[in-house]
Amino acid sequence: MNGAMDKAVSDLVGHRIDALIGIAVAAACSAWWLGCSRLAIEHGQDASRCAGQVLQLLWLARAIALALQGPRAGAARGWRPAAAGALLIVAPALPLVVLGWSASVDVAARVLAAEASLWLAAGALPAVGALLRRPARAGSGSERALELAATAVAVALAAALWRWPGPL
Questions:
Q1: How high is the pLDDT of residue 44?
Q2: What CA–CA distance (Å, rounded) separates 164 from 63?
């Protein structure tokens, strides 16, 4: 019974960290958007450019956070708890995405496609980590090698996202 309690507490701590990542990304992007809009208005420029830029920023920041956290959490905790945690990274910024879309000139279909890609990644990236976990569970006993492999996958995904122009 004690092992089940330890796993529940571990999952709870992991979910809190994931939620804090999502809230921190949303808060930082909203502060940037506020400053950008304020400067645009002071200089007589169009503030809708800032809204479009915050949509790109939100997508990139959450995608990199998912790429770094998803495979590692999937390898450490399994698919189901890691996918729930990945959703906690994506979800807190949804109100900001809706506000950014309404203030920008971006087409709704592009914004919805970008958001759908994040939600799909929230399920797929922990699955990659869980697949890495299977050979280790078979008896190799190499948890350190598993963690290194999941970290290598996560860093490669984050680097690829940084170079890719993104859907928006």
A1: 93
A2: 11
